[in-house]
Amino acid sequence: MAEAAVVRSVTISAVPGQVRVARAFVAAVLGSSHLHADAALLLTSELVTNSVRHSGSAVPGGLVTVAVAASGESVRVEVTDRSGATTPALLAADCAGRVAEGSRGMQLVDAVATRWGYQRGGGSATTWFELCRD
After folding, report:
1. Which of 26, 67, 70, 124 is the 20 to 30 A CA-CA neighbour of 50?
2. CA-to-CA distance for 116 and 71, rounded, in angstroms?
C-alpha cells in the first residue's frame, strides 16, 4: 500500500456485539466519502466475526485488535487475535451449502478485496485485506 495518511487501531472484546464497534471505528477513520468505505466496513465485519467465532480470543476476556491504514485511494485493515486452531480458508462454493448460514465470509473477502492474507506468530494471528483503486 502506498504511504498511509491515517493509521489507527482499537482493541475490543471478542464478543459478537463488538463487531458493530469495529465497523463504527473503521467508518470513523475512513469517513463516509472514502472511495472504499462501504467495502471496508463489509470486510471488517467478516474478519472480526471470524475472530469472535473461531480464534483463540473467543474466550471470556478475549480481545481483538482492529488496525486501519488509509490514504485517499487505498485502505488496509488488519484484525489481530489470539491464534486459534484453524486458519482462514476459502471453501469451494458447493462446500458451503446452498442454505448454510456460514462458511462464505472468506469467499466474500476474496471476491471484494484487492488482496488479502494472514500471518501467525507469537501466539497471535493477523488477517488483513487491502482495497486499492484499480
Report:
1. 70
2. 18
Determine the 3-state secondary structure of 81 from DSSP.
Answer: strand
Supply the DSSP symbol for 90.
Answer: P
Please give the residue range of the domain that contains residue 70. 6-132
Comparing C-alpha atoms, which of 81, 79, 77, 60 is closest to residue 124? 81
Cα 113 from Cα 43, distance rounded (Å): 8
Closest to 127 in 3D by CA, of 61, 67, 75, 42:
67
Q: Does the model's pTM come out above 0.70?
A: yes
Q: Judge contact between 86 and 55, C-beta under 8 A.
A: no
Element (H, E) at 22: helix 19-30
- 1 within some domain: no
Report how far residue 52's alpha carbon sits from residue 43's, in angstroms, rounded to the nearest whole number. 14
**Number of domains making up the chain:** 1
